[in-house]
Design brief:
16 helices, mainly alpha, 366 residues, 0% strand
Length: 366
């Protein structure tokens, strides 16, 4: 089973050449396409042109794009776990956040496909991680990394541009009254993602007319219309339903509860974590077009909340497990919480994987 949009990346990469790197299609930005083109060139250097031609014609780039999604999807869980560990200093909350992402239905489903949603979500998670480092430890380098990664996220999928706000927000939230120097620094950090975006997508500048037409077409012709079969429910209902499908009832409830706990315990960290979801939903709810995968960029932020919640509940439950030795109580408490909470999205993901292995029977005879 393939994804209809895979052809926009693995299908376009073989048509590029060093003499013409213009993808001539900007409804989606081309960073994933460029990564596949670079892989094709490396394959040709190593294996020769004839072997590479056979590999590409046999679907090698499509398979590689799927591997990229699978690997980056896995790394997203690790990056978010590292972010939660940085916030709390505890392994239990970090592990819980990783489990939430690793067993997320929508994230697991889309990690099978060679499209840009999961790679963009990974880059957003990385941008958040470095913004948290910049907020908590000070220094300019992590904020610069956050800003650069935000630009790369946008160069992978335009939705990732909301991450442009993370580095400036981290700088402004460091504390104290904003000074002119701080405001100027925040403005520079807000501009830097545009530089990395253009560096990864140079034809947004070189062929600005094509870029503008493709971007506007995506934003208005697609964004302001219903797709065939789309529900006419309110946008808030659609995004809530998709978030519920992504995490399951227990994990989504834990995510919202954990974000409340974060607001009470670490207000500045909570403000940084909430910047992206608030701005993202404000922008996306203004558009009519809806796919379930549109909620994927929210996953790292919801997983932070869920990890904090499950870690807190596990620490309160552990002392009650008096029949066990002290060192085993917290791991067991966390397991008792996560296993039932994860059943709903995990079962959905397993059913989806079973569907992928079935043969196409629509054209079968009687």
């Amino acid at each position: 089973m393939s994804h209809a949009d895979e052809r926009h990346y693995a299908g376009v990469a073989p048509r590029l050449s060093w003499g013409d790197l213009n993808p001539h299609r900007f409804e989606n930005p081309p960073l994933l396409t460029y990564a596949l083109f670079a892989a094709e060139q490396l394959h040709e250097l190593w294996m020769g042109r004839a072997v590479t031609h056979k590999w590409v014609s046999g679907g090698g780039l499509f398979l590689l794009a799927r591997w990229i999604s699978a690997v980056l999807g896995t790394l997203t869980a690790l990056v978010v776990a590292a972010s939660v560990r940085r916030i709390t200093g505890r392994w239990d909350a970090a592990l819980a956040a990783a489990v939430v992402i690793g067993c997320s239905f929508l994230h697991g489903r889309d990690s099978h496909y060679g499209v840009n949603d999961v790679p963009m979500t990974f880059l957003v998670a990385c941008s958040l991680h470095y913004a948290l480092r910049g907020l908590q430890n000070g220094g300019l380098r992590p904020l610069l990394m956050s800003a650069v990664l935000a630009g790369l996220a946008a160069a992978t999928k335009y939705n990732g541009a909301v991450a442009f706000a993370l580095a400036p927000a981290a700088l402004l939230l460091r504390g104290g009254r904003p000074t002119l120097r701080t405001l100027a620094g925040a403005a520079c950090l807000g501009a830097l993602p545009f530089v990395s975006f253009v560096a990864a997508n140079p034809f947004a500048w070189i062929a600005f007319g094509e870029f503008r037409d493709g971007f506007v077409n995506q934003l208005t012709r697609w964004g302001d219309n219903y797709i065939w079969g789309q529900s006419r429910d309110a946008g808030t209902s659609l995004y809530f339903s998709a978030s519920l499908a992504m995490l399951g009832f227990a994990h989504l409830t834990a995510a919202l509860g954990g974000l409340v706990l974060l607001c009470r315990a670490h207000a500045r960290v909570a403000a940084l974590v909430l910047v992206f979801p608030v701005l993202y939903l404000a922008g996306m709810l203004s558009k009519t077009l809806f796919f379930w995968r549109f909620v994927l960029p929210l996953l790292p932020f919801l997983a932070v909340g869920a990890g904090l919640f499950w870690g807190e509940v596990a620490r309160r439950l552990a002392p009650r497990l008096t029949l066990l030795r002290v060192g085993a109580r917290l791991p067991l408490a966390l397991t008792l919480l996560l296993v039932p909470a994860t059943l709903q999205p995990a079962i959905q993901l397993m059913r989806h994987n079973q569907l992928l292995t079935q043969s196409h029977t629509l054209d079968a005879g009687p």
